[in-house]
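ugh ok fine here u go
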Amino acid sequence: MFLLRCLFRIWVVVISAGIFFFPLDNIYAQCPQVEAIMVDACVIGQEHNNEFLIINSGGGFNTNDIQLSYDINNVLANAQNNDINIDIGNYVGDPTPCGLTNGNINAYSGCSNLISIGPGFNVPPNSIVVLQASAGSTTNAYNFTNLCGSGQCVYVISSSCIRTAGGFTNSGSGTRETIFQIAGGCNQTIIYDRALLVGGDGAFYIPLSTSYGNNGCVAPPSSPATPSTLPDFDIEDEYCVGDTPDNLPTTSDNGINGTWNPMSINTSSPGMTNYVFTPTAGQCASPFTLSVTVTANVTPIFSFDVTYCRNETPDNLPGTSDNGITGSWNPPTINTSAPGTTNYTFIPDAGQCATDETVSVMVDDNITPTFSVDDEYCVGDTPDALPSVSDNGVTGTWNTSTINTSAPGSTNYLFTPAAGQCALPFTLTVMVDAVINPVFAIDDDYCVGETPDNLPTMSNNGISGIWAPSSISTSASGTINYIFTPTPSQCATNFTLMVMVTNNVTPTFAPIGPLCENSTPPTLPGMSLNGISGVWSPPSINTSIAGMTNYNFTPATGQCATTVSIPIEITARPRGSLNGNVDICPGQCGNISFALSGGSGTYNLNLQINVGPFNFPFTVPGAMIGGGMQICYNGTNPLPSFILPNTLIIPLNTPSGTFTLTLLSMTDQGGGNCANGIIENATMTVTLSQRPDAFNATLEVCDEDNDGTGTFNLNDANNDITGGSPGTTVTYYQNSGLTMLIANPTAFNATNGTVVYALVEDGSGCLNDSELTLLLEMPEEPNLPTFTVCITNPPLNLPVIINGVTGNWSDAGGHVSGNQFDPAGTMEGNYTITFTPDPGQCFTPANTIVNVTSGGPVPLDGIPSVVCLGLGSLTLPDMPNGTTGIWSSPSSHLSGNIFNITAAGVGIYNFTFTPDDPNSCFLPNMIQVEVVPNAALTPPVFTNVCENSGPFALGNTVNGVSGMWGNNTNIVSNIFNTNAGAGTYSITFFPDDECTNDLVVNFVVAAATNLTPVIFANVCITSPTINLPSVVQGVNGVWTLSMVVVTSFNPGAQGNGTYSLLFTPQPGQCVNGFTSTIAVGSVFAGDNTNHNVCILLDPIVNLNTFLAPNAGSGGTWKQNNMVITNPTSFDLSGFQIGNFDFEYILTDATCGNDTAIITLNIARAVSAGNGGSLTLCQNNLNNINFSSLLGSFSNGGIWTNSRNININTSNPANVDLSSLPASNTLFSYRFNAGICPGDTAFISVTIDSFF
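structure:
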């Protein structure tokens, strides 16, 4: 009996009332159509407000096009009962059609995705729309779980009119006609027979199959509702602390709009946080949760050597830290070619949560040992012992244990420092002379008239002889030579003693001072400039007191000298101190003052603050007397800083505490020798306090008068704002600048959403602020019952407490007085009464109905006609329709008003309610309840469950029924822990629905198999890239190196070392992973190098010292293809002057050989000889022998003379000097410095005139 302009597929559902036809799948038609009409609506007394139609949207439509015409018999009484958006026989008094308004989704329970829509909404194709016939629908009138209880989307729209009579007649006989159409052509005429309705609340009509049914107050059968869409996002969910995260988009990748909570990803601290995306209403979409993991940064740790000697072969800088962080170094290798400290920074590879790490490497300079060992002897002399420790503390060994004086000549003794010291070898050249010189201990300096020493006939070293003159004379000043002539046959030479007889003199000294106060003074000289030794009084210079002091010098006995006094001035230095201590909070600054004096009055101050983890030195330039500086606790950078001219910034991340500020030194800008000042009070304290806690909070009051404003006692939020911290006070302001004080916070008027600002202060004086949001609670309307009273009854007592809300009753007709309704004088029908809640409960007045009746059976509404066995019991209303009475039943399982379903079992049971009030005008009434068995679930099938595969989600529904899995210790929150091992586990599903039986399932966890690890051969750093197999023994998987997925291994990129690669099988294969290792080696003999080598006295060298710093150790040396067996002590004495190539060959079992060519440019030391002097007569200047003066010398030197006269010196043994005038001429024989040091000898030639 209806017209459709579309085709659809049909499915069949059998219900107790008959056979109904519905679409099998989504309707693929253009025209929307009504699939069901709730004809006999639920809620007693409100049936006319709770009727609805279920519409399938077909190809989709705009709600403005909906037109619904009721049967002419249902359009009566007033315009509130008119058609929707059309006039086909509307109320003649006002034929204006009803419009559409947003649907009341609160009328239906059991669904999470009911969407309220109104006019102008484009309904998507194949959607379910509920059209409410009245805008006065009742809250929770129906349970829609069967339609959309699994999250499906259902759109709800309502007529704009509140009907006073039903739109669909549910009693009597005959047919009723309803027309549904979409403006523009789609039309559906629906005709139902009232006599075929299945009686009672919940009776529905199915137009598509012209069938009838009654399931109670639930949704009638229809096509399936549209499942909600899950938003899809491509957002990174793993970060390191401090990373810049992805923005959270307000539109998903599949076009769903919404908002996030929290609104943005926070990477400031480690942990996992859920970010929930809530779709904007009306989109048929489900919330989406993004779990973001933030990992803490790791500091790389290293254990290589950080101390070396100059040119020592250093450790390689590892590409992987001790705690597994990979990365690179800057600089890439340790350089030991120069002394000092160098920072090497390790930069972790991308994709690791790690920080840069700087390692300081110290290179110590090599020390040249020094010795105070005598290096000249006569033949047979007892030599000095060769010490094992040098004068400057270097330990070592000598190549010969003692000095040999048995024969004349020159011998080299080589000292080799012990290992572990930064020291160079040292060569001691010892000369043993064959001739002995006599030695005497005779005073050769006297004053005039002083008694001289006797001249001994035996020298101190045992040489006997005679003197001429035979005794020393001191009678007159002057110099006299006394010649000792050894007795013949001794190996000794003549000895000349030059005796000086001196007149008494006054000691003279270089001026001392002025000196600076507290400076280290020079030592008073024990000998005057003119050679007078003696003692001083006072014995040393005192610089602790400024001023002038005389120091007296008394010559030592035996000198020809007099006492002398010299004045020394001590100049004062400037002084400085710090005054005052600072106590500040974050964002505050404090001042300290400088106590400065002396000098120019302007100074440079060097200070250091030890605060938190920082020891921060800084300079205050141009500080003046009376000046000071400012310390501010407001730095945004992580390190302290100093801002000229006088502000020290402490970072806000510094923890609270008391720290020290130290004045290290001061310098007078006026300069001078005494510019460095004296520090007196050097230290003061800086106390950093933290802000008190201040939390954002909300405060809610009721808008009792519904005027949009409320009165708030802001102090009620104090504890929430301070977090309950003791000793804090809270002050409120109207603006974020904290300038508009709220004078009376206990009675502050504001609108909903007003934000006020709280200033929190603690005992330290530190401040913090937060926001307090003021919220208005909108008053609710109490849920009132309806009342029934017989027209002949006495006044009805109305309850003054309804659902916990207290109040009083009234009406407009004068039937209510003293909270009683008096039916006397009324007519049969409904009377509106008003319940006014008492103040302070946030409820508004509400109306309900008193139904004045004149008899008939007591209404028994709201009792289900069908219940399941699993409910256990059914509670019948103790006062149906407000009427007291007694329940009875043929069944023995009714006790009072409680029916024991479990004991009764499946069947049909009759219950009779008999009113017991003699004044009641109701008769007894009977109902019938059918008890049906619980539904059984079909066990789900779980596949691909492998042991040790982590948590396995069992789900929270079985056959569309929600519930929880349990009865097994391995299950937590519907998650099965597969780490329990392989086996079969009994698990139970406990449905939330009492009408569904529990389900026991055998859950099988399969055992995982082990793979044989892949064995990789050792490779060289120069080897080609290794492609890693993606399938191992038939198992697909992925490789990871240091938690990074890789498909190949590049030895050159990874560097030396042993690397662990993890193979993880793809999910679903039930196979354990394994770890394989790859060892990467290298061979590098270093760069080719060139070195100049001078052979002085010792030709022994350590060839390894000529290798490049990047050379590997342990190689083989060759020269002319001959293996060198002693490279650390190689003798170069057999090599001529020139360039010689040496090969250094390094061998590795995996990487083969590498050779470095070391070229030595060898030179030998030269000597210019000893030199000497000649006195010649001008008439005898031919054939002069310079060679005899030079002694042992090398040929090839350069001759020059002080007169720049061309003298032929090609034959030094025969030089013609006849061209020289009578005078002194200095000749030099020179070798310039090259690979070896240069050398020069001088010959002084004096030519006397010929008389």
